[in-house]
Amino acid sequence: MMLAGRRILVDASMATSGGGYTYLVNMVPALAAAAPEAKFLVLTRDASSARAVVPRANVEFRVLPSSGLWGRIGFVAFRAASVARRWQADVYFSVAEYVPFGARCPGVLSLRNANVFTPLDQGWGRYQTFRLWVLRRLAVATAKRAARVVFVSQDSAAWMGDAAKVPPDRRAVIHHGVNLEDWARALQGVPRTGDVGILALSSVYRYKNIVRLVEAYCELGKRMSDPPPLTIVGDEQDAKHLGDIREALERAGELGARIRVVGEVPYEEISAYYRDARLFVFPSYLETFGHPLLEALAAELPVVASDMPVFREIAGDAALYFDPFDVGNIAEQMERVLRDSDLAESLAQRSRARAQSFTWKAAADRLAALLDQVIREG
Are the CB atoms for 257 and 120 separated by under 8 Å? Predict the structure, then answer.
């Protein structure tokens, strides 16, 4: 049996929100189930993530003190290795970009933060530019020592793997997943109200492209006399972009009253937003995976998304695609789905079929096999 008797330290100390949180609360129980005879120690700074995971006898959570970025980096650099040694870990798996210096066991890390490696100029200020430069240097340095580097898509494994100078034979691709049974229960017996209208859901960063989405909705309002509301859900991670969104809402005039910026929603309540939406739109121009896209597929929603290789890798023919920098094109694709009920139904049917290719069980099985191989290689 894979990982039988092994001790796996899972470092989630850098994963405090967004995709990192989603990954943690879903992958840990799936991984523990895939390797029931292994022991797992999960390091986190968020007590809510520990509470959100279904308890298992072979999983122990250790909640670290809350800390800013530099405190988290200091932990990886100076303390994490000693934690691994004292716990006698057989492998150190980091769900973020960093494994510790001086660990005696092999390390496996996950590179998911596209901001750290993208060559796109996003107009960051001096502090954020410096911060990302430091994070990139640290990620490249730790990736050199890692036994394997996990990427969440073939697309990110290619461009980020090259940027991080990871040899191809040390790259591993493990897609995120969904629990289809949970989504079936969330949808079963509850009629869709459509009250959410057009749903956009993700942490609010500038690369999520929400300003152009608001502008596209205004263009949609010129094409349709009574467009469904636009609902934007997500925790606020980028103060400047949030300010830009507010200015776009002011420019929207009367249509601004039909745009709802909900902010952060507890993870366990997210499914209700998907259930009551008519259409899911994902306008990001930079992603390594884009888990909300997969959740929308599992919720059997018609999807329109940015035309990027990673989104085509995930959604395939279950979505319509647009140029994320072309406001008119975004509006056009939303209008197509809203006006054509047959097209919307066809996309919804393809969504469910496509989601079946991505499950947390399959992801956990692949990760368990990878960790087992790394331990055996020594």
Answer: no
Per-position DSSP letters for 221-263, written without gaps between them: HHH-SSPPPEEEE--B--HHHHHHHHHHHHHTGGGGGGEEEEE
pLDDT in tens, 301-324: 999 999 999 999 999 999 999 999
Q: What is the CATH number of domain 180-355?
A: 3.40.50.2000
Distance CA 215, CA 248 (A): 7
CB 118 within 8 A of CB 335: no
First to last CA, the chain: 18
- Grouping H, G, I as helix, E, B as strand and the rest as coil, residue 149 is strand
| DSSP conformational letter for 228 | P
C-alpha 270/C-alpha 267 separation (Å) is 5
Q: What pLDDT, on the 0 to 100 scale, is given for residue 131?
A: 87
Whether pLDDT at 130 is above 70: yes
d(CA 138, CA 218): 42
Give residue 16's pLDDT: 62
CB 311 within 8 A of CB 290: yes
Instruction: Mention every residue, 6+ apart, whose C-beta is less than 8 A from residue 374.
Output: 91, 106, 108, 147, 148
- pTM of the full structure: 0.92
| CATH class entry, domain 7-177+359-377 | alpha beta
Give the tens place of pLDDT for each residue, 215-265: 999 999 999 989 999 999 988 888 888 888 999 999 999 898 999 999 888
Which structure tokens are listed for 179?
């629990």
Q: What token pair was written down for 32?
A: 């523990």
8-48 pLDDT per residue, tens: 999 988 766 666 777 888 899 999 999 999 999 999 887 77
Using alpha carbons, list the distances in angstroms from residue 168 to 150, 165, 171. Answer: 11, 9, 5
- Full strand arrangement of the beta sheet holding 259-263: 259-263, 230-233, 197-201, 277-282, 303-306, 319-322
294 φ, ψ (degrees, to nearest 5): -70, -40
The position carrying tokens 């954020």 is 128
Asked if residue 357 has pLDDT above 80, the reply is yes
Distance CA 17, CA 38 (A): 27
> What are the structural domain ranges in the chain?
7-177+359-377, 180-355
